[in-house]
Amino acid sequence: MLGCWDQVRPMVRELLTIARSDHAAGAARCVAALLTAYEGDHEAASLHLRRAEELIPNAAPAADPLTDTQIQVSLALDDPLSALAVIDSSMPTAVQVNPIAADEFLQYASRAAAGLAQQATSRAGRQSALRRLERIEDARGTEPTPFRPAGPRDLAHPALAALH
Questions:
Q1: Nearest-angstrom CA–CA distance, 153 and 134
Q2: Residues 132, 135, 139: CA angle, nearest 5 degrees
Q3: Is it the case that residue 1 has pLDDT exceeding 60?
Q4: Contact present, 68 and 61 (Cβ < 8 Å)
Q5: pTM here?
Q6: Is it the case that residue 75 has pLDDT exceeding 60?
Q7: Alpha-carbon gap, residue 164 to 155, rounded angstroms
Q8: CB of 74 closer than 8 Å to CB of 83
Q9: What is residue 2's predicted lDDT score, i.e. its pLDDT?
Q10: Which terminal residue of the chain has fewer beta carbons within 10 Å of its beta carbon, N or C?
């Protein structure tokens, strides 16, 4: 439904009203934060994200929608520095808990570092973006092999590798 905001908005509104647990309500707020970030509404995205953080205070970096949402909202709102900070702090745990999420984080880190390098007005700023990406890549490590396909029909991991 990418780009069909008029169709998605009522569904998200309903999702926000029917969530019965804090975790479900936090997940619904994550969806609302993404929707409003993609629509370019910085204030609403920040409010939804802040509420999600309140509802899911102990979210695991790779087993919960919150960390992924924090990264994607930062990228959507053209805040690559915040995205890199979340990825940097989450990567060591993500590798241990969910290497697939760690690979997704690595691809997000590439996007964020590229955005940061484009925003940088000096060579030092661009080099700083590359150093951050290298630190995140080091934290990801090589075990298990990054972007390794789960099987012969897995096209997602090679696509993530190409984006990275």
A1: 30
A2: 140
A3: no
A4: no
A5: 0.86
A6: yes
A7: 14
A8: yes
A9: 58
A10: N
Write the DSSP assignment of 6-56 as a string of letters. Answer: HHHHHHHHHHHHH--SHHHHHHHHHHHHHHHHHTT-HHHHHHHHHHHHHHS
Block residue for tokens 């009522």: 10
Residues 66 and 30 sit within 8 Å (Cβ to Cβ): yes
Question: Which residues, including other chains, have CB under 8 Å from residue 100's CB and lie 6 or more apart?
Answer: 157
For CA atoms 161, 4, 113, 91, the dihedral sign is: negative
Look up residue 58 and give its two tokens: 């102990």
Burial of 18 (0-12, 13-18, 19+ CB in 10 A): exposed
Give the three-state DSSP class for 103: helix
Q: In this structure, are residues 78 and 109 in contact, taking their beta carbons and an 8 Å threshold?
A: no
Which residue type is seen at 130?
A: L
Contacts of 159 by beta carbon, 8 Å cutoff, 6+ apart: none
